[in-house]
Amino acid sequence: xxxxxxxxxxxxxxxxxxxxxxxxxxxxxxxxxxxxxxxxxxxxxxxxxxxxxxxxxxxxxxxxxxxxxxxxxxxxxxxxxxxxxxxxxxxxxxxxxxxxxxxxxxxxxxxxxxxxxxxxxxxxxxxxxxxxxxxxxxxxxxxxxxxxxxxxxxxxxxxxxxxxxxxxxxxxxxxxxxxxxxxxxxxxxxxxxxx
Length: 195
Known about the structure:
Blueprint: H1 7-10, H2 32-86, E1 89-91, E2 96-98, E3 102-107, E4 113-123, E5 126-136, E6 142-153, E7 160-164, E8 167-176, E9 179-188
Antiparallel strand pairs: 1-3, 2-7, 3-4, 4-5, 5-6, 7-8, 8-9
């Protein structure tokens, strides 16, 4: 007698998760819950990234605005302080706070007379600070020039000058889009050396 064993009936079949019965191929896929969780995580990462980029661009723009306003005031301060240190007169010579224009005069030892006028002129919504010079030589020859010193000057907060006891104090405010910068600087006029 021969015994034949029927393996199919004596051994229980085992199904593996993810395999198709009889094919041996795995089935891959996501359930709806896994898909929703993945989308939520991706949305959160994208939101954080967008906010970080927005903050970076805003901070960069604000830093550029501040730098521009400061550079305009530094240029104005350089020229006004330079001329005030040379000046012998402020016209008018009355004490007190004055609006622009500001007029400075001096004569060098060689007899050359200089007149510098700082004025605020409209340019768009803000003002431009200009430096107008007139130099007269001893022989009567006159040379004039104009130079734009600063743009974006805001007159509303009080761009002004004050003259007292031979000390000139200038207050300037510059605005660049979202940033406003104010500077106050002083210079002492030299004594009258004109001969």
